[in-house]
Every structure is written in structure tokens, then in C-alpha cells.
Amino acid sequence: MSKIATVATALCVTAISGCGHMGPELDGYHDGWRRATVKAVLTVDTVVSKGMIDDCRSAFGAKAAQMTFAWTSYPYGGSATLTQDRIVAVPEGFAVHAGDHVAINTRDCAQPLKALTNTP
Q: For the purposes of burial, counting CB atoms within 10 Å of the CB of 20, is it exposed (0-12), middle (13-18) or buried (19 or more)?
């Protein structure tokens, strides 16, 4: 095999396998669980007026008044630079602060955030 063909083959294999797995997935990734970073801790009355945000506070109805929520951000579309913001419930008794890394569910607004593990 020529040197050019060898290099071309190596590049193709690298391109196919290198992007196929950008990092460890959460066990539940296919169920909507994503790694996210907490941007702020909120109440139901906190006004957020920044761009496109998925806001799950309304999913809890009157119960939301006694709940704490977290404004989170997670990578979107497989890109390291594109992010999506989502406001999710914080479970009662769970301490969370801006900058914390958590697991959130992007499909079900009723799912509160969880401690970041490989099994949310």
C-alpha cells in the first residue's frame, strides 16, 4: 500500500471512530438525561428574561410556590460551544449552588435534577 493510501486510511478510521464518542455518556442518556451546570438557584417567582430557556416551573402548578429550582445549562447538539438552558426542580433537601455539575432530564419537566453520577 502506498504511503498516501496508508495515511488516507488512517485519517478515515480516525474520523469515523474519533467523533463517534465525544465523552462518557450518562446511563440514561437515551432517556433524556444530560450533564448540566447550575447557573443560578431560583424560586417560582424569579423572573428570567434571557433568550430561549426551557422553563419547567409551570409543570408543578401551585406546589411550585414551596419549591426551589435551578437554572441549568447543558451542551446541545453534540457541540461544546452550543448550550441550552433549562430551569428544573431541585429535590427537597438537596443543596445546589451556582457552578455545581448535576444531571437533568431534558424530556420530562417533572424530573428533578440529580447528583451527577453515571447512573442518574
A: exposed
For 65-120, the pLDDT digits (tens) are 999 999 999 998 878 789 999 999 999 999 999 999 999 999 999 999 999 876 55
Please list, in sequence order, all residues whose beta carbon lies within 8 angstroms of the beta carbon of residue 110, skipping any fewer than 6 positions away: 56, 59, 60, 89
In total, the chain counts a number of residues equal to 120
pTM over 0.85: no
Report the chain's C-alpha Rg in angstroms.
19
